[in-house]
Write a structure and sequence with these properties.
about 160 residues; mainly alpha; Helix Hairpins; 5 helices; elongated
């Protein structure tokens, strides 16, 4: 029954985590797309504010997910909110100090949270990259043509 409980908790946590992260990422993408582009005039403070706002939004989103996992740990197996949040944050960030550990009945949740944290951090880096690309290029590099005309020998020498 223990493995079934762990699997059920894991599936539920993954489903809610992915829903939160993907919904948050989609909201950030729509927000970034709606920001008007500055043509030749780049305003330093406005650009810095956009990057800062995006970064803060991503940190808040990660904090909500850490709190979700901490709530599960507190409800299932850890004695205090402080230890549950600490364990969750250190697992999510893949640090895993080992000074707070889950009971053996629930120990598979820790590595699962680390994998989720690593993957969601990658998604967040992509969002921050998209915000900066929005400011620098105004167009995503993925919209460049896949095939270009081959260069002749004279163009290569230049």
């Amino acid at each position: 029954m223990t493995l079934l409980q762990q699997a059920g908790a894991a599936v539920l946590l993954l489903a809610v985590t992915l829903s939160l992260q993907c919904g948050g990422a989609a909201a950030l993408i729509l927000w970034i797309r709606g920001i008007p582009r500055e043509s030749q005039k780049v305003q330093v403070f406005r650009c810095a504010a956009l990057v800062m706002q995006t970064t803060v939004a991503v940190i808040i989103l990660h904090g909500i997910v850490i709190l979700l996992w901490a709530s599960c740990y507190r409800w299932l197996c850890l004695p205090s909110w402080e230890s549950a949040f600490y364990f969750s944050a250190s697992s999510y960030a893949t640090v895993g100090y080992g000074d707070v550990v889950l009971p053996s009945k629930w120990r598979l949740l820790g590595p699962l949270e680390s994998m989720v944290g690593m993957l969601m951090s990658g998604v967040s880096i992509g969002l921050l990259f998209a915000a900066v690309t929005h400011l620098v290029d105004g167009e995503s590099r993925s919209r460049l043509p896949l095939h270009t005309e081959p260069m002749n020998a004279d163009e290569i020498r230049m």
